[in-house]
Design goal:
transmembrane; two-stranded antiparallel sheet; mainly alpha; Tetraspanin_CS
Length: about 260
């Protein structure tokens, strides 16, 4: 590799790792937001150990990506072979982990759906209609996705408020606005004349699945783009590492 190509690869790898560092900061910030924000969807699933663990994993992955980006920048700009080799190995491990996680989620999707159903059913059974943070989050989901319950409206049948009302009360956020007229509430409970509620028939699980199917191209494009970027970083790092024959540690600033 000529000196010009080597220099171009070095600075291109530095720029790539700077972006990678910022990407890690975004992932860590997203994980912290999910964990701490009282208005996010995570509030609905706050009793799930698996979901909280996922948030901590996001935070850990973000922090690790930031560290990896920093090491890559340092290795590229100061031409340190050991850091470039470590960077290549870490990127390879991340790529393998992403493929394994994607395969696991695909083959365990029925188990994930069952776990989500249990969590949401517990939330609905304990829904008192007091407009708490958890209730606001679930009302927002049902209202905007035009769905009722996780599997369907019958998920609400175990709620004690509804049972005590002889099935005449129903969640207002489930209300199908095409079947009612006049003013109506979008949270808490509303009263129906008969147990045949004027609500959406579809469950939120189907709505989420339909959204994913509609946007599958975008989701796959993002996943493929991330994988290609990681492969590019691996190629650049190994090429730069192979063409650095001597290491000048005097370039590295000493503090």
């Amino acid at each position: 590799m000529g000196k010009g190509c080597l220099t171009a690869s070095k600075y291109f790898l530095f720029l790539f790792n700077l972006i990678f560092f910022l990407f890690g900061a975004v992932i860590m910030g997203f994980g912290l937001w999910l964990l701490l924000d009282n208005q996010s969807f995570i509030v609905v699933l706050s009793n799930s150990v698996a979901v909280k663990t996922s948030c901590y994993i996001l935070i850990g992955v973000g922090a690790f990506s930031m560290l990896l980006g920093f090491l890559g920048c340092l290795g590229a700009i100061y031409e340190i072979r050991c850091l470039l080799g470590l960077y290549f190995a870490c990127l390879l491990l991340i790529l393998i982990a992403q493929i394994a996680a994607g395969a696991l989620m695909y083959f365990q999707k029925d188990t994930l759906n069952e776990e989500m159903s249990k969590i949401v059913t517990k939330v609905l059974e304990n829904y008192p209609g007091n407009n708490s943070t958890t209730e606001q989050a679930w009302d927002f989901i049902q209202r905007n996705m035009e769905c009722c319950g996780w599997s369907g409206r019958m998920d609400w049948s175990g709620n004690m408020v509804i049972i005590n009302s002889s099935q005449l009360l129903f969640p207002c956020s489930c209300q199908n606005i095409s079947l009612v007229s006049g003013n109506f509430s979008d949270s808490g409970f509303c009263e129906a004349q008969t147990p045949d509620w004027p609500v959406y028939d579809v469950g939120c699980a189907s709505s989420v699945e339909n959204w994913l199917l509609t946007n599958i191209g975008v989701v796959l494009g993002i996943c493929l783009g991330v994988a290609l970027i990681e492969l590019l970083g691996m190629v650049l790092s190994i090429c730069l590492c192979r063409n650095i024959h001597t290491e000048d540690y005097t370039k590295v600033p000493k503090y």
